[in-house]
């Protein structure tokens, strides 16, 4: 009986170790499957420790334990498959928290990010622009990404050689901007590199705009209710 208990503990420990070493599995693995595995293990231990009645053959307990072990083994074997392909859907707060790029994004797997509509009706995303954290208003009506001068400096752009001689129309009226190239923009698990954009003349723009030069690099984007979903 001790040998069976050891086998159960080892099998369950293997599953937990596999889950712990990969944070994406914690998000993707169905909670019901984990619960069944734990409950099944407890039942197996109970069967092993309960005294066998004379009218209950021991082989019933053996088959029950074998079934539990099979369930645990199946869950452990399915863990590598959960990620391929996987859609990591993040329910983000109003401003879309910044998260590291997942392995799924790096490997080209389908990834989705959801952003909740703010109280003023807009979608505000917290992003990393050239690894600098900043907030951007997602504006599908804007042709490009437009940064405030202070945020452009934070993103490492050289402001000295910029010529603010291009006029564009924004919600604040006509704004003069200078063209730039952005090395990388990341929102949650979604990333796009080498994006065209503009830097607004200092003091002329109240907020950063995330326009079509970024949005058209996505697989799709759509608004459903109070959520904007971005997909790679």
- Low confidence ranges: 20-30, 80-102
Gyration radius, to the nearest Å? Answer: 26 Å
Shape category: elongated
What does the main sheet amount to? 7 strands, mixed
Would you give the CATH topology of the largest domain? Cathepsin D, subunit A, domain 1
Text of the CATH class of the largest domain: Mainly Beta
Tally of domains? 2
Distance between the amino and carboxyl termini = 52 Å
Number of beta strands: 11
Class by helix and strand content?
alpha/beta
Strand content: 25-35%
Number of helices in the DSSP assignment: 7
Instruction: Indicate the CATH architecture of the largest domain.
Output: Beta Barrel
CATH superfamily of the largest domain: Acid Proteases
Order of helices and strands: HHHHEHEEEEHEEEEHEE
Percent helix, as a range, is: 25-40%
Mean pLDDT across residues: 74
Describe it for me?
The chain is elongated, with a radius of gyration of 26 Å. It is built from seven helices and eleven strands. It folds into two domains: 2-82; 88-231, Acid Proteases (Cathepsin D, subunit A, domain 1). It is of the alpha/beta class. Helix 1 (2-20) packs antiparallel against helix 3 and helix 3 (31-49) packs antiparallel against helix 4 (58-82). The model is unreliable at 20-30 and 80-102 (pLDDT under 50). Strands 3, 4, 5, 6, 7, 8 and 9 form a seven-stranded mixed beta sheet that branches. A four-stranded mixed beta sheet has the order 1-2-11-10. The protein has helices at residues 2-20, 23-28, 31-49, 58-82, 103-106, 149-154, 212-215; strands spanning 88-91, 111-116, 124-129, 132-138, 145-147, 166-170, 173-187, 190-200, 208-210, 220-224, 227-231.
């Amino acid at each position: 009986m001790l040998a069976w208990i050891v086998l159960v503990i080892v099998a369950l420990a293997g599953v937990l170790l596999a889950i712990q070493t990969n944070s994406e599995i914690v998000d993707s693995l169905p909670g019901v499957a984990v619960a069944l595995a734990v409950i099944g293990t407890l039942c197996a231990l109970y069967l092993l420790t309960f005294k066998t009645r004379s009218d209950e053959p021991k082989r019933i307990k053996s088959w029950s334990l074998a079934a539990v072990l099979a369930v645990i083994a199946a869950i452990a074997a399915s863990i590598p498959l959960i990620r391929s392909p996987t859609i990591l859907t993040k329910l983000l707060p109003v401003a879309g928290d910044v998260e590291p790029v997942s392995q799924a994004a790096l490997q080209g797997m389908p990834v989705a990010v959801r952003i909740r509509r703010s109280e003023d009706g807009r979608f505000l995303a917290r992003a990393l622009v050239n690894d600098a954290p900043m907030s951007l208003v997602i504006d599908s009506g804007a042709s490009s990404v437009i940064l405030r001068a202070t945020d452009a400096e934070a993103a490492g752009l050289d402001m000295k050689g910029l010529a603010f001689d291009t006029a564009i129309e924004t919600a604040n009226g006509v704004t003069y901007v200078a063209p730039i190239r952005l090395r990388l923009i990341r929102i949650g698990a979604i990333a796009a590199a080498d994006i065209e954009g503009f830097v607004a003349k200092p003091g002329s723009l109240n907020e950063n705009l995330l326009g079509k030069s970024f949005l058209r690099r996505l697989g799709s984007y759509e608004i459903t209710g109070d959520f904007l979903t971005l997909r790679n």
